[in-house]
Amino acid sequence: MTDRRNTRATAIVVTIVVTVLCGLLVPAGTAQAAPGVFDQGVASGEITGTSALLWTRAVTADTVVVETATDSGFASIVDTQTATPSSADDYTLKVPVTGLSEGTEYFFRFREQSGSEVSSIGRFLTLPSDASPEPLKLVYTGDANTLVDPETSEPVYGHFEPLAAAADENPDLFVFLGDTIYSDAPEPITDLDDYRNKYKAARDAAVYPAMHEILAATGSVVQWDDHEIVNDWNSETVDPTQLTNGTQAFLEYNPVQGDPQNPSDPFYRSFKWGSDIEVFVLDERSYRSAQVIDDPSLPGACVNPISGEPDLAPTAPSWIRAIFGLALAPLKWYVDATCRNALNDPSRTMLGATQKEWFLNALEASTARFKLVVNEVPMQEFWALPYDRWEGYAAEREEILKFVRSARTPSTSTTSSGSSSRRPPAPKSSPAPSVPSRTRTRFSTSSARSDPSRSTSSST
Question: pLDDT tens digit string along 132-150?
């Protein structure tokens, strides 16, 4: 980052297309894809102005050729490499490509060196120069739950059809924002191969062709949340075997690099898009304190005396609890003050000291006019079941929001893909929610508005 300030009064509009997989029960698609050597599709990530990380999975250990070109017909190939899959990585490949040009569209593919099989074609854009403003269109989603109904053998949450709509937006970037698998649906797992199989299920072209489509259509920014390991995990109480195996599978099956335990190579990062936009991607799992309801030093702190379960809304105002208490008897009774004090304890952290210091310093040092903070869990105050969200780490949340509100960090927006609150799945008889497959959000110097009635989007 530099200290120079942008003096151009250029209005950059960032268009974000929101696709929520887990809550959209739309009619199942019928697209099929024939199995092959590269049946898990292709993806790209870790993109900079001059480099990218290309991903696929092969079904054999035979050497493959990786080609990158400036045209989809591969008449102008700029990079050719070979790579050999290994069983140690479950035959996944991550191939770095360097020496690229800023703000340029590239295409890539994998093909057998000694055979005829060729992967689908992937596409990505390198980051543009930060010398001038550039428009950015990104799409984001999370919660890719592949749970299957045992009675119908059909996916409970559809075939991820909204991802096809997202690909149709022709985005510059795809932010895959946590819960890229549901390792714990229907039950938690521990074995490495079980974690790998969850990713294979989510990349099954015959069931989820839209996943292939969006990953190939543009470069990805992938971050984890909890279900890559186990529901609501934290650094203090997570099972070490689950963390080790879940982390390995996440790194194998996504175009990402890093090690949360290595301070010089963490999962959290930021990148600029032109001079006016900077995106901050946080890691809200690897360093957080235990949730209050999981903290062994606070046994029963937030247990409601009527329900015997974690209180539904321990921080809600009394008038809110009184109204909803007419239908939900436990809300008539407040939990012990120990609960609310623990939720507001400044020693409890979501980001960890090192990441928080990096984040606040990076926000303040950023010369971008627009700053987008990518969260795995919402910053908003919902009151209901706050324990795993930012509300469950209230002191740190308030510290960050005060910093963002200050004149030093104007035009900062946050986004998240969903909320994990230990709720039971909807019954089979529940109707499909009437939620639009895409939501249009515009960020400008003066306002941020959402127009869910619009089915198309644009950026200027």
Answer: 999 999 999 999 999 999 9
Q: Which residue has the tokens 């591969």?
A: 74
Q: 335: pLDDT confidence band, cut at 50, 70 and 90?
A: confident
What is 265-423's CATH number, 2.60.40.1120, 3.40.630.30, 3.60.21.70, 3.10.20.310? 3.60.21.70
Q: Which of 8-17, 117-126, 193-202, 365-374 has the lowest mean pLDDT?
A: 8-17
CA atoms within 13 A on the CB side of 317: 4
Separation between Cα atoms, residue 243 and residue 237, nearest integer Å: 10
Instruction: Supply the angle between the helices 394-405 and 353-365 in degrees, to the nearest 10.
Output: 10
Buried b (16+ CB within 10 A) or exposed e, 102-138: eeeebbbbbbbeeeebbbbbbbbbbbbebeebbbbbb
CA distance 256 to 199: 14
Question: What is the residue whose two structure tokens read 């990079």?
Answer: 79
Each residue's pLDDT tens digit, 233-290: 999 999 999 999 999 999 999 999 999 989 899 999 999 999 999 999 999 999 999 9
Q: Where are the domains of the chain?
A: 265-423
Contacts (Cβ under 8 Å, ≥6 apart) of 351: 282, 283, 284, 287, 288, 359, 396
DSSP structure class, residue 429: T
